[in-house]
């Protein structure tokens, strides 16, 4: 009888210890799950609030093509229509740029009214002759009138055309204080601007910035001549 009671007591004590350990284990698992949930929620909120970083300068300051007007102003005094050699050289230099930059229409902007209508018409005829002698077809020339100040003693004839040039947006923009705002993980706002501006200005052919040229065959004869010249020039 005494032994049976002792066994019952031991059984009850063991059952109590088992329940205690099971509850403790459940509480530990619950605490771990709760801690994991809190950690995930905190990191996810940081990810949602983080500004995506700028990858490189191409995405920060992209080079794009933009239409740009190029012009040459020719000044004529009242009653004078004959162009001097300096004007002729300026026109030829402008036409050289036109043939290299554009295949669009070449505009001749004629003032109206003018100080001397007859003199301006003769000057326009001389400009036409220079343009055609430079190899530009007559169909590419377009005469346009613009409103001029009749009170001036100088008439201005403008040669104008439009060309495509690489363009980069304005530099020097600082919308964010990087010293006080450490949540942004990326480049500064002005990153890449000066580099792309210099790059766009130095490009002789703007299309080279956007697409490659056709590959040419190697000129072995010319290469050997260059190598021989370099060897001869060595001390």
Automatic annotation (TrEMBL):
Domain of life: Bacteria
Protein name as annotated: Pilus assembly protein CpaD
């Amino acid at each position: 009888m005494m032994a049976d009671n002792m066994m019952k007591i031991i059984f009850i004590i063991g059952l109590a210890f088992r329940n205690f350990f099971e509850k403790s284990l459940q509480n530990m698992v619950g605490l771990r799950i709760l801690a994991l949930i809190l950690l995930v929620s905190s990191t996810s909120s940081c990810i949602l609030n983080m500004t995506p970083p700028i990858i490189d300068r191409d995405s920060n300051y992209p080079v794009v093509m933009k239409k740009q007007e190029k012009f040459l102003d020719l000044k004529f005094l009242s009653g004078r229509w004959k162009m001097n050699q300096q004007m002729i050289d300026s026109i030829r230099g402008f036409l050289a740029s036109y043939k290299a930059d554009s295949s669009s229409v070449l505009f001749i902007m004629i003032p109206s009214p003018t100080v001397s209508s007859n003199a301006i018409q003769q000057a326009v005829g001389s400009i036409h002759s220079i343009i055609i002698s430079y190899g530009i077809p007559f169909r590419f020339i377009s005469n346009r009138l613009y409103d001029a100040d009749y009170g001036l003693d100088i008439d201005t004839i403008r040669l104008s055309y439009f060309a495509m040039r690489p363009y980069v947006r304005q530099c020097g923009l600082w919308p964010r204080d990087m010293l006080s705002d450490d949540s942004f993980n990326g480049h500064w706002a002005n990153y890449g601007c000066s580099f792309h501006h210099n790059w766009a200005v130095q490009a002789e052919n703007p299309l080279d910035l956007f697409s490659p040229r056709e590959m040419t065959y190697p000129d072995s004869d010319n290469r050997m001549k260059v190598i021989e010249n370099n060897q001869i020039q060595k001390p």
